[in-house]
Every structure is written in structure tokens, then in C-alpha cells.
């Protein structure tokens, strides 16, 4: 029953996203001519501007009016207090912009791709510094928070940022009583800021003082940038509260959560749900019954946490029940009318180990997650120290299991490189599973608590690949996996500290060698072969299979909706339709070797 990793005290709740339409500029307040709505954009990772196709769906800044004109900043009509904002953005090489929450607090968007030096507040995902001329020349800037690591993708690729922002609080007289907090900033799936309190407005704010509300603003006077998929949730709606709460406590074995004719040891009224009433470690039953005050008719999600057996009923309907560990997230959404509703929460435990944990949360779209239990009723997560594998001085190899697209792979080698680029490789298939930049490997699940899962995870900016061997006989379909009857892994040899993987494929002897590219921003993969008969077979190289393929220029495509680049020298690519509406990029192979780069 016990879970190995209790990542969060509060359960993860799927947030309801409202989307800002990008059919026109109607969502923005007097946008300058820098801003247009387009259908598609693309750029090489060395380009300083975009190639644009007209249409709808993408917000583009082209810097028509020159730099540093504040009238080119884009102000949304949406005003907000607390907000969770998610959007996709694309930067060309060297570009600079930023998102101002409430028009006052900037999260920096900058082309920080490939930067090896220590990150600063002005890098992508940084919270920009404050500014005060009265501090004296050279000291005007202060505070400012650098991102934890460089999670910036290459120019010309779509990137995702998610910002969870808590607005400052003010008393009835307008005096600030609590600073604004960036609860979390997630850049391309990596947490780069967490629980950062800002004492005041950052440099370049739209206003001269703080307030409870303000508009999202995007810096539009520093360089080109593009956006799509602008989604948000604000938190102004009221939510459920408890009323007329009563509890009953029994001791003994209650396997079905029914007291039957048992005599309670304790009973009474309560103001919140708590496990403090429980006097023993096992063999008890605690029942809460009371009212839910529902402010408005809507759908409400109920999330329960308990160690042992529990059941939640609302208006006589069972929502959540079963045997769980307290970190398990169990939830059910129910539409409730405004007014009072009855609920019953039953909890028992028939084993002596583990915490006596009990929690009940409620979430309404447009309001914060609210705990209806006492803070001490649901314990903090068990502390688990990170077991990190580093690759600082020389290439490092780590074998483990690994999940790839939901499937557990059993013959995986992770290779970390001092250049800061790393990959996971399936030795059974001769396939790259994923590539990443930054820190190397989280091996905690291999060793913590006897290492039951035996998996490890990337610690940096990760790009998942298709996990298939890329060579196919010319004109044939690429199989999901190689035929093990015709395929044999022969080990690897070391060349300049890095593995060269060896295979026999029918009568072909294969070598697969990956080295960092010259800029240290991606991998160059070289496949070479020879046959026993001395003749060269006819192969195609599958560069990738994805839902979309964008040809950026000759020898360069971007895949998976501009998530990563593949670059090569040589043959002309062909794009073929394959199963599930996907497209596959191939090039013909001549000679007895082929090289290509993966850049992200």
C-alpha cells in the first residue's frame, strides 16, 4: 500500500483553462502595429526573425516601430488578481521580451539557449529585478531572481511557460499587508521558480503603485516574439464551507465502515475535520457528518486523502471510497445547487503502521483549492533526499529501467556528458528514447526504499523521441520494434570516453555512435555498417515520426509541433503519411554511414 514518493502535500488538481482567442486582436487594449495575428511561423535556430504565414491562431510581434517604445507593449483587457497563466511562446535568436503579471511584476522571456554560465534574473524564466534611482548609481537594481536552471529551448521552437501568481493583499484602507508571490514558474516542464515573494514592482512596470488587480502585459518593444495557446484560470469565485459539523468516534474492528450497534467513545461538534480525536493507532472508526454551504450552483470536485479505509458521501451519494495511502489522490466531481447539502465522511484503519491521516479538499473552477480539514490532520510528505548522478568531469553511464511513452523499458542505458547534453538509449532496439540538457540523472527511485521501481529520470530540459531504430530497408515501413530473431546486441566499445553501440542485423554489422555537436547544444548521431558479402544494402533513414513536420530549410526540419529540430547533410527528405494521422520524414542513404543532429 505504501507509495515510494509523496511529492506534494496538496493533491494535484486539474485546472480549468479559459482560453484567450487569437482570431483577432480583440482581447487586447489598443495594440500597436507591432502586433498581428498569423496562422503559422517558423525560423531556423540561427534566424533573428520569423517567416510568417497569414491567418489566425498565433500572436506575433515583428518590432515594426523600432526598439524601446513603451506604446508597443501589449496590454490585455483581462484584469486579474490571483491567476494561473499558461502560454506557448517562440523566440528567434537573441530575442528579448517579458510577461508582466498585473502589469507590474515581470517574468523574463529571453533567448538563453545554450548559455553555460550561471543563470541571472534577466535569463528566461527569471523574475526581473526592481529598480530605484535613489539607491545611487550602480546600485539602482536590486532583488531579482534567477531561474534554478537553464530550461530554454532553441530559437525557432515552441516553448511553454506556466505561472502561478498570488496577488498582493490590501486592508480596507488600501494598505498593503502581504506581498505578491510567484508560487511557481514552470518553463518547458521544469520548475524554475517556487514561492518567490516580491517586495514590490519590478523594473518597467506599467503603473506607479501596487494594487489588487491589473492587466497582463507583454513587453513588445525589445524584439520579435510569438505566442499561442493563451490559457488562464483566475480565482475570484466563492467556494464551499462547512456548517453544523458533528463527529462520532468508536474503537474496534469496523471493516465495512459501519458502526452497527457499537457504542461511541466520543461524540460532539467540530469546526473542521481532524484526526486528533483518534486515540489508538488501529481498529477505530471516525465519522463526520455535517453541512456543506454551497454559495452558487456549479460543479465541485471533492478530493479525499486517508491512510486505511474511507468513504465520502454527499446527499447520500457515495463519491469516494476504498483503501488508500494518504498520498493517493481520490476525487469525484458533483454538480451542486446553491444552498445547504449534507455530507458524511467515514474513516477507519485496521493496521498499526502508517500515519492516521485524514483530509478533505474541495475545488471549484475559478476558486482556490480549499482544505476542509485541520492542517495537522494530513501530515507533510515524507522527506526523500535526491540521489543525483552527475556527469561533470567525464562521460557517465547508468543502467536502469525507464518509462518511455508510458511503457517500462528494461534494457536502458543513460549517458551523461560533461558538455551538459545527455540521452537515454534502448539497448534492445538501438533506439534513442529521450535527450536532455542540464543536470544529468535522478536515480532516487533506483535506491530509495529498496529501489522497488528501479527507474531513473532526467533532471534537465527533456525531449522525448519516438524510441525506434531509425534505419529501414528502402521503401519498407518502419516497424514498431526490430525483429529480435534478426537482431542481436553485441555490446559497446568506448571511443573517446563515449559508447559506440554494436549490433548484428541479419548479415549487416552496425555501429551507432552519439557525440555532442560542436556547440554542445544537441547530439550528432552517426550510424555506420558493413555486410559480410561486402555489398552496401539500400537503406532509408527515418528522421522522425510526428503529428506535424515543418521544413524550415534544406536539411532542417522541426517535428512534433516545432518541439525539436533534426538537421542533416545530404539526401532530399520525403514526408510520408503513416498510421494515426502522423507524418514520417525520411532521407535515402548512400554509402555505408549517415549522420544527423537532434537539436532542442
UniProtKB/TrEMBL annotation:
InterPro entries referenced in this protein's UniProt entry, alphabetically: AL/BT2_dom
Coiled-coil residue windows: none
Organism domain of life:
Bacteria
Where is each 3-keto-alpha-glucoside-1,2-lyase/3-keto-2-hydroxy-glucal hydratase domain found?
48-231
Q: Which residues form the signal peptide?
A: 1-16
Q: Keyword annotations for this protein?
A: Signal
Looking up Pfam families in the UniProt record yields: 3keto-disac_hyd
Put simply, this protein is called DUF1080 domain-containing protein
- Please give the organism: Aquirufa ecclesiirivi
Amino acid at each position: 500500500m505504501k507509495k515510494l514518493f509523496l511529492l506534494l502535500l496538496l493533491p494535484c488538481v486539474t485546472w480549468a483553462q479559459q482560453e484567450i482567442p487569437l482570431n483577432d486582436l480583440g482581447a487586447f487594449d489598443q495594440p500597436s502595429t507591432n502586433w498581428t495575428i498569423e496562422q503559422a511561423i517558423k525560423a531556423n535556430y540561427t534566424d533573428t526573425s520569423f517567416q510568417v504565414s497569414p491567418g489566425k491562431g498565433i500572436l506575433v510581434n515583428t518590432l515594426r516601430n523600432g526598439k524601446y517604445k513603451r506604446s508597443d507593449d501589449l496590454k490585455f483587457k483581462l484584469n486579474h488578481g490571483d491567476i494561473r497563466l499558461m502560454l506557448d511562446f517562440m523566440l528567434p535568436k537573441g530575442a528579448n521580451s517579458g510577461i508582466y503579471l498585473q502589469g507590474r511584476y515581470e517574468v523574463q522571456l529571453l533567448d538563453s539557449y545554450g548559455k553555460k554560465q550561471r543563470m541571472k534574473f534577466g535569463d528566461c524564466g527569471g523574475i526581473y529585478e526592481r529598480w530605484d534611482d535613489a539607491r545611487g548609481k550602480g546600485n539602482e537594481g536590486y532583488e531579482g531572481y534567477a531561474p534554478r536552471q537553464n530550461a530554454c529551448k532553441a530559437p525557432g521552437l515552441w516553448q511553454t511557460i506556466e505561472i502561478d501568481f498570488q496577488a498582493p493583499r490590501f486592508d480596507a484602507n488600501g494598505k498593503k499587508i502581504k506581498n505578491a508571490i510567484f508560487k511557481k514558474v514552470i518553463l518547458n516542464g521544469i520548475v524554475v521558480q517556487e514561492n518567490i515573494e516580491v517586495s514590490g514592482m519590478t523594473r518597467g512596470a506599467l503603473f506607479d503603485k501596487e494594487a489588487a488587480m491589473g492587466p497582463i502585459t507583454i513587453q513588445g518593444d525589445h524584439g520579435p516574439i510569438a505566442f499561442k495557446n493563451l490559457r488562464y484560470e483566475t480565482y475570484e469565485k466563492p467556494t464551499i464551507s462547512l456548517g453544523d459539523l458533528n463527529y462520532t468516534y468508536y474503537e474496534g474492528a469496523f471493516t465495512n465502515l459501519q458502526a452497527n450497534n457499537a457504542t461511541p467513545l466520543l461524540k460532539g461538534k467540530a469546526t473542521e475535520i481532524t484526526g486528533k480525536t483518534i486515540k489508538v493507532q488501529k481498529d477505530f472508526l471516525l465519522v463526520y457528518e455535517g453541512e456543506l454551504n454551497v454559495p452558487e450552483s456549479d460543479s465541485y470536485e471533492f478530493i479525499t486523502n486517508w491512510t486505511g479505509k474511507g468513504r465520502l458521501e454527499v446527499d447520500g451519494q457515495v463519491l469516494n471510497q476504498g483503501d488508500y495511502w494518504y498520498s493517493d489522490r481520490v476525487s469525484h466531481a458533483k454538480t451542486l445547487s446553491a444552498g445547504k447539502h449534507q455530507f458524511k465522511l467515514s474513516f477507519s484503519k485496521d493496521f498499526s503502521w502508517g500515519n492516521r491521516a485524514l483530509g478533505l479538499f474541495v475545488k471549484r473552477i475559478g476558486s482556490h483549492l480549499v482544505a476542509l480539514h485541520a492542517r495537522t490532520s494530513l501530515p507533510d510528505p515524507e522527506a526523500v533526499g535526491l540521489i543525483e548522478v552527475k556527469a561533470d568531469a567525464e562521460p557517465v553511464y547508468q543502467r536502469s529501467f525507464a518509462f518511455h511513452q508510458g511503457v517500462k523499458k528494461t534494457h536502458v542505458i543513460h549517458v551523461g556528458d560533461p558538455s551538459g547534453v545527455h540521452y537515454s538509449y534502448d539497448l534492445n532496439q538501438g533506439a534513442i528514447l529521450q535527450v536532455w540538457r542540464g543536470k544529468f540523472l535522478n536515480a532516487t527511485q533506483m535506491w530509495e526504499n529498496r529501489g522497488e521501481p528501479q527507474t531513473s529520470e532526467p533532471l534537465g530540459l527533456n525531449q522525448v523521441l519516438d524510441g525506434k531504430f531509425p534505419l529501414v530497408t528502402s521503401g519498407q515501413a518502419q516497424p514498431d520494434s526490430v525483429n529480435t530473431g534478426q537482431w542481436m546486441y553485441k555490446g559497446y566499445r568506448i571511443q573517446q570516453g563515449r559508447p559506440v553501440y554494436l549490433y548484428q542485423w541479419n548479415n549487416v554489422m552496425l555501429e551507432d555512435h552519439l557525440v555532442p555537436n560542436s556547440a554542445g547544444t544537441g547530439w550528432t548521431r552517426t550510424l555506420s555498417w558493413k555486410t559480410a558479402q561486402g555489398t552496401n544494402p539500400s537503406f532509408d533513414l527515418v528522421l522522425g515520426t510526428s503529428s506535424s513536420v515543418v521544413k524550415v530549410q534544406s536539411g532542417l526540419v522541426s517535428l512534433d509541433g516545432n518541439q525539436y529540430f533534426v538537421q542533416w547533410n545530404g539526401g532530399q527528405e520525403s514526408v510520408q503519411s503513416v498510421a494515426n494521422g502522423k507524418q514520417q520524414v525520411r532521407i535515402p542513404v548512400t554509402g555505408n554511414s549517415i549522420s544527423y543532429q537532434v537539436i532542442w
